[in-house]
Amino acid sequence: MSTPREIAEMYFECWRTADFEPLREHLHPEVTFDGTLGSTRGPEEFIEGVTGLARATEDLEIRARLADDSDVMTWFRLVVGGGETEVVNWAHVEHGLLRAVRVTFDPRPLLGDGG
């Protein structure tokens, strides 16, 4: 069974390669993603949604990661469409499976609205 930190590391490695299939076996059947620009429910929507964002990502730099027995917070710099923003990603793991991801950030730099 993978630890929450290992799952978070795999999630971001999948993001870097824009291939989330290796993460599929670590997704809870009811995995959710909720963020500033959208939400998904279930493994298929999850993989489709995060793959789309990963493909649009120009750069991603992890700044810090904190983990405990079930949760991981990752702070990172994200560049999409020439815009740059700082993001916090909370991942919740239950019984070795990624159950929920929540992200928050200021989307204005990514939408061309300054920031």
Number of domains: 1
Structural class: alpha+beta
Mean of residue pLDDT values: 94
Tally the beta strands. Answer: 6
Biggest pleated sheet? 6 strands, mixed
What is the strand arrangement across the widest sheet? 2-1-6-5-4-3
CATH class: Alpha Beta
The number of helices is 3
CATH topology: Nuclear Transport Factor 2, Chain: A
Domain SnoaL-like: 9-94
Protein name: Nuclear transport factor 2 family protein
InterPro entries: NTF2-like_dom_sf, SnoaL-like
Defining key terms:
115 residues, alpha+beta, Nuclear Transport Factor 2, Chain: A, six-stranded mixed beta sheet, 48% strand
Structure description:
By secondary structure, this protein is of the alpha+beta class. The protein has one domain: Nuclear Transport Factor 2, Chain: A (Roll). Helices cover 29% and strands 48% of the residues. It is built from 3 helices and 6 strands. Strands 2-1-6-5-4-3 form a 6-stranded mixed beta sheet. The chain starts with a helix and ends with a helix.
Q: What's this model, at a glance?
A:
This protein is of the alpha+beta class and 115 residues long.
